Structures are given as C-alpha cells and as structure tokens.
C-alpha cells in the first residue's frame, strides 16, 4: 500500500521517524489529542517530510507502544497497531479511535494533562477545552446544566410574547418545564437562563459593527447588547437592517425592490450562531461585522463534531447539536428546523436574489475555536477603472493587511500575478520552489483565502484534486492598486533623479516655466 493512500484514509496524522521509548510524552500527547478529538494515526518510521525511513525491530516496538499506553494513559483509548510494508521497509501505524470517555489524559512525570489537536499540533487543553471534554465524556450538554438562578425569581415574558407572535397560540406555563428550561428541584437550566427576561450569563453578548470599506479600519456604527437570547436575535436583525441597503429598480410600469441581502438568509445565519455557539467560552460572544461587500458573523466554538465545515459538502453535514435544548426551543418558535438544513437554506435564500452569481455563494469556515458565516452583498460595486485612472485607490494597500498575516508584498506579488488565471496547488508551489504542500498552504495560501484575496473553484471540496485557486475581485483590486502605487513611486523617483541632475540655471529655468503654467 502507498503512504499517500494511508494518509488519505486518516482524519489526522503525525509522523515519527522512530519511537522515543524514554520520552513517551513526545508521542503519547498525540494519542491523547486524537482520542479527545476526531481520532487519528501516528506513523512510526517516517520523517517529518513524509519520507519512509523504516523500522528495524517491529515486534519489539509494538510491545513497547502497548506497554507505554497502558502505563501512561488514563482512561485507556481504543487503539490499533498496524504494520505496513512500503518501498521495501516496515513502518507502524498506531491508529487511535474517537474516544467516548473524554478527557483522555497523559499521566507521567508528576503530571496529568489532557491534550487537544490544534492544526498540526497537539497542545495542552485549555479550561474551556476541559469543560467541553467533560461534558462530552458524561454525555451532557451545557444548556442542560443547572444554573445559579431559582425559577421562582425569573420571568419569561419575552419568550411568551415571541411564542404567541410566531405560533399564534397562547403560551402556557407548563411549556417552561417541558421545553427543558427547569430542573426538577426548581432551578433554571442554562437554557432557561438564556431565555429568561433577566439573563445573567455574562457570555450571552452580541457585538455589532458597520465598517467603512472592505476591512476593519474605521467604524461607521457599532453597538453592544447582552442578555436574553431572543432579545439579542431581535437587536441583531435590527442592526443589520439599519446598516444595509434596500434599493429599487425602475421598470416601465412599476418600481421593483432590490435587496442587498436575503433577510431570511441573515436570520438563519444569526439563529445558527446563537444556538450552536460554545457557551463554555466565558469571554466569547457573537460578532456581526458589516463591510461594503459582505456581512460576516462569527461565534465561539467550531463544529460540534470537531470537523472543519470547509472540508465538508453541505449535504454531508450532520445535525449534531452542541445545545440541543436551545435548538429545540428555537424549533418550537419556528426559527429553525431540526434537520440540520440551516446552511443550505442560507445558500438557497441568497441564490434566489436578483443579480446572484456563483461568486456570491455564502461561505462557511470553522476552526477548533470559531465558526464564521460570510454572506455577500448583491449591490456592491467595486471601484471602477476610471476612478483609478483619476487617482482613486482601488481597495486597501498591502501595508494595511500585510502586517496582519506576516507577509510582505514582495513575498506574495508573484502569487497575485499568477492567480489572475486559476492555478493548481502544484503550480503555485513551483512558483516558489516549495515541496511541502501543508507548510506552503499555511504560510501563503490560507492567509490569503482568509483575507478573501484568493478563492477556490470548489469551495465545498477543498481537498479535491481538481481544486484550483484564483484571485477574487478584492485580490484583483489590491493587485491593481499596488501596481498603480509602484508605477507612481517609480515615476516620482525618475523625476527626482532628473531634477537632481539639472544644473542650477536649468533648475531656475524649469521653475520659471512651471510658474508660468
């Protein structure tokens, strides 16, 4: 079997050129992280560049691996040790399955540490990570836990009024318990706290900002809200409506309304973020950032499954819910469905707008700690070429964004020029002479995609062999602007050099001619 085939079948993997018998923590931390996450594999006998080096005593190494896991892991994860013969050499695959009794600890050297996976690294779990792992291991959710508020001291007027407005029926007191908002001994659950009129959870907050232009530069308008979840949703929609356009088109016999965004798509996105966010992150909140060309909604906590949404097709995303009680209540209020179809609905509602093109398809991105939804404006018009010729800049200068991603314009200019036509990852690597795809993507491609200067032809299939990368409208505007700046700087430099070489008499003559003009 080829190494590439083995890697393709793994959710995550690490290479180890040898087994460090006397330093078990160096590789057991990956065992802990994989068991606490989506599973993964450790390959022994392969160096960091993916080159097969082989192992000498495979049977002995298998015994050592089993022994170290028994001695240093608690609880014991489910693992398989699989030998492979590649290019005439033996390697070992230590396959770690997804753990059901998290957290899984490394116990040794006087330490008891649970590790989690962040990118290609296994790092110690944070306090928030530990809360999530404990909830997962005990099969409980944050919204089902008892809060510090007695039910008798709480009211649910906002919930009651919303139910009656949206469902058309009277709200009954027994719903509070049947919805899962109360414990048996009369305390609010965390879900009950979030739906109560006087919500005390400090992390139930919303930050809204309308930015000038395409980047976080000057804020035109901003607002902050906290408290009841339904109140946050209402204020979020009000902020979006008051900070986006609703134009119209004149027809021969009537006037046709044209929306910048699909209202239902925005509502669906906000509900998704409020319901599925990670409330164990105490300093976290939902953010709405409105730019000239897009709305970006972010919230703490990635996909509940641990996967990255950008690596999945929308049809393949399961309806696993981090906060099932919140989701059920919002379904009862007819804000969402239980089938996990919210992301597709955002896309479909946007697609139904006049002027829609494939490049306006909403984007969804996630990491282990954040989920982001990007919805594009149907009415945004990039700055024209004519304005550029008159001296107006097209988009931001690289000085505004380069520092944020630790890349200079000299480093990325070749990439911008090449991506005016779609290119494969291999073609891009060849531009720079890189061989390691992962490191090249992390340094160059991923930051430019994050800043929306570079796009993918198959955004729903990021790992497809047919994937191609291209320069977005923002990227083209930046390239044009930087080219314009470069020409201007060169012209100024030439004029300065010409003046420097003039004699004093010639300088006086030139100055006299300019004054006559």
Q: Helical content, roughly? A: 25-40%
Rg is 28 Å
State the total count of DSSP E strands: 20
Low-confidence stretches: 385-395
Strand order of the largest sheet: 12-11-15-16-18-17
Domain count: 3
The CATH class of the largest domain is Alpha Beta
* Mean pLDDT over the residues: 85
Word description of this protein:
- This protein has 517 residues and is an alpha+beta fold.
- It is 38% helix and 20% strand.
- It has helices at residues 3-8, 25-36, 58-72, 127-137, 157-167, 174-178, 190-195, 229-242, 263-276, 324-332, 342-351, 385-389, 398-401, 409-418, 425-432, 437-450, 473-500, 504-516, and strands spanning 13-16, 40-44, 73-74, 79-86, 89-96, 105-108, 111-118, 121-124, 146-150, 187-189, 205-211, 219-226, 246-250, 255-259, 286-290, 294-300, 363-366, 370-376, 454-456, 469-471.
- The strands form six sheets. The protein has a six-stranded mixed sheet, covered by helices on one side. The protein has a four-stranded mixed sheet with strand order 1-2-5-4.
- Strand 13 (246-250) and strand 14 (255-259) form a beta hairpin.
- The protein is flat.
